[in-house]
Amino acid sequence: MKNLLILTFGVLVFCLPARAQQIDYKKIILPDGITNLSIEERLVQLAWKNNPEVKAVQHDVNASQYEVKIAATRWTSLLGAQGNLNEFTVKQITGSTQTTNNFYPRYNVYLNVPLSAFFEFPNQKKAARERMGIKQEQSNMLKLDIRARVLKLYSEYRKNEVVWRIRKEELDDFKLRVNTIEQKFSDGAATLEEYVSAQRVFRDVQIQEATAKSDWDKSKFDLEQVIGVKLEEVL
């Protein structure tokens, strides 16, 4: 009995992580109306809302849903109705009192069921459902892809911003040092070699700052391309 309890507990522990790995796609892209969202979640929402690829996939999903409805009503194509215009109905329309012969039936309802319909129609409905499932999975894959892209781009943006601010501080600090060395060189307190070396290092620092600023700007443009709006409108 003790061994059975241990085995049962082990199976439960083993199954828990498997259940926890299920993806809730409704939480990948949070719906509108939720307050106190982080910047990252707002960026993901915007990317999902403004991405043309998302709209195309959503149209595909809607179209597949209509295909399922059409397949479900395919049986109605086997039913038909027709009416006969005979002398009795003509008399009713014209108001004539002349005695005429009546022809029956005035209406015919028919059902034409080929044997292939019992196999074809259910399979068509299943195929339509499978296609709808494919479109829905494509939509889920796009949710994961857009979320990953946005989070990576925003992380890159923040990193490049920090790097640029550090480079900017270095440039400002070194500019003061260069100004001091220039003044000393003018006063004869610094050698030409010190002056030239300071200028060369200063140019290197300027290049590093410009490169960092360019990287930051590029990461901003890449992020804006995905979310569809200016980043200043979100931050």
Automatic annotation (TrEMBL):
Record keywords, A-Z: Cell outer membrane, Membrane, Signal, Transmembrane, Transmembrane beta strand, Transport
This protein's record includes keyword Transport: yes
Main location: membrane
GO molecular function annotations of the record: efflux transmembrane transporter activity; porin activity
Subcellular location: Cell outer membrane
Signal peptide: 1-20
Record InterPro entries: OMP_efflux (IPR003423), TolC-like (IPR051906)
Example of a GO cellular component annotation carried by this entry: cell outer membrane
Matches recorded under Gene3D superfamilies: Outer membrane efflux proteins (OEP)
Domain of life: Bacteria
Repeat keyword on record: no
Similarity comment: Belongs to the outer membrane factor (OMF) (TC 1.B.17) family.
PANTHER family on file: OUTER MEMBRANE PROTEIN TOLC
Full protein name: Outer membrane efflux protein
Record organism: Chryseolinea serpens
